[in-house]
Design goal:
Blueprint: H1 5-13, H2 19-29, H3 45-54, E1 61-67, E2 73-79, E3 85-92, E4 98-101, E5 105-107, E6 122-125, H4 128-145, E7 152-157, H5 167-180, E8 188-192, H6 196-204, E9 212-216, H7 222-228, H8 236-251, E10 258-264, H9 272-285, E11 288-294, H10 307-319, E12 323-326, H11 340-346
Parallel strand pairs: 4-7, 7-8, 8-9, 9-10, 10-11, 11-12
Antiparallel strand pairs: 1-2, 2-3, 3-4, 5-6
The structure holds iron/sulfur cluster.
Length: about 350
């Protein structure tokens, strides 16, 4: 197995390191009470001191954490190597458990018209440990700020960046998290705008952990989708339908489903005509869930659909037998949509 960047650095520092020491180090990294190499009591003192001198214990540092007024959403702007900022979010769900949203890239090349991150362009991919350390950061935050029993139960890769455009680092982060936490494959969702060669890779790759997948569809009409996602192309929809059928044939079951994300944009993709197209598209594939996302306003030129429009859209889907959910809006008062906090701080 290839070493992650962090493990590679450790092996370079200690060339004859036995594997069990790496396992001890990884275990310590996922213990939120441990905050420094010097506290890793399973390692010899000399090793702790060398690590403390030569390697940061955390690959990211917090710039700012803001909490929503209701206290259920916490958003962090964090600094990565090179000084750039990314975002990660902690959200309390209805069952009192916590979901975190992690970023996979600094910026993003996909240029989705409604997205603040898309305006930044791609700056760089995050290393696996920079993704993992977003989880570690929130684990430590929970220990310091929440109740004893509070824990992170779900992870969504829906922050800044297109996860499948950073395939190997995302895969490595997933496998590490699955190995060292009790968060299982059906509690992790990787959300993609639909990079088809990488979606094919997911199907073919035996090392890809079968976490849930969500594809940001946003419209089942070719022209409308292109307006929202400029990197979309003419035969995207039939190709996605074909991939989705094969994906469901292989992995679909009661607990492992495929989701199409659909951000509700006023007068763009929220009409009855669009709902009918979407229902027909989904019904031709099989059991795909549709998740309607109320738009969190950014200064990107799109406006949010009204609650009544979302309700009517949902009813059209319901009537046609589509399994549909509407995402709970959270943290609007702290600019919780992807890329907004970093952009706000830059202004
Ligand atoms: S919505 Fe996601 S894929 Fe699209 S530009 Fe924003 S971060 Fe990238």
């Amino acid at each position: 197995m290839a070493y992650s960047n962090r493990n590679q650095q450790i092996v370079e520092l200690f060339p004859k390191l036995p594997n069990y020491r790496l396992a001890q180090i990884e275990e310590a990294l996922f213990s939120p009470e441990i905050r420094s190499w010097l506290d890793v009591s399973t390692l010899p003192k000399a090793m702790r001191e060398k690590l403390d001198k030569d390697m940061p214990f955390m690959s990211v540092t917090v710039d700012e954490i803001v909490a929503s007024i209701d206290g259920d959403t916490h958003k962090a702007a964090i600094i990565v190597e090179g000084g750039q900022k990314i975002e990660t979010v902690l959200m309390k769900n209805k069952r009192g458990m916590f979901t975190i949203c992690v970023s996979s890239q600094v910026g993003c090349a996909m240029r989705c018209g409604f997205c603040a991150t898309g305006k930044m362009g791609l700056i760089r991919n995050l290393e696996a440990e920079e993704i993992i350390d977003q989880l570690r950061l929130w684990q430590q935050y929970l220990v310091d700020n929440m109740g004893e029993d509070d824990r992170i139960s779900n992870i969504v890769y829906m922050g800044m960046g297109e996860p499948l455009a950073n395939y190997e680092n995302v895969k490595s982060s997933l496998n590490t998290i699955l190995k060292h936490t009790d968060i299982g494959t059906t509690r992790i969702t990787v959300s993609t705008v639909g990079v088809l060669p990488r979606l094919e890779q997911v199907l073919a790759d035996e090392d890809w952990p079968h976490v849930r997948m969500a594809v940001s569809l946003h419209s089942a009409d070719k022209a409308t989708r292109k307006e929202i996602v400029p990197t979309s192309y003419d035969d995207f929809l039939p190709k996605l339908a074909d991939w989705s059928r094969r994906y469901l044939e292989r992995f679909g079951n009661r607990r492992h489903h495929l989701t199409f994300e659909y951000v509700m944009l006023k007068d763009i993709n929220d009409t009855k005509h669009h709902a009918t197209l979407l229902a027909n598209f989904v019904n031709r594939i099989g059991t795909v869930r549709v998740n309607l996302i109320p738009y969190n306003f950014t200064d990107c030129g799109f406006a949010a659909s009204t609650i009544d429009t979302i309700t009517a859209f949902r009813e059209t889907l319901d009537k046609k037998g589509v399994v549909v959910t509407t995402r709970r809006t959270q943290g609007e008062d702290i600019a919780a949509a992807c890329g907004q906090l970093v952009k706000k701080n830059e202004k």
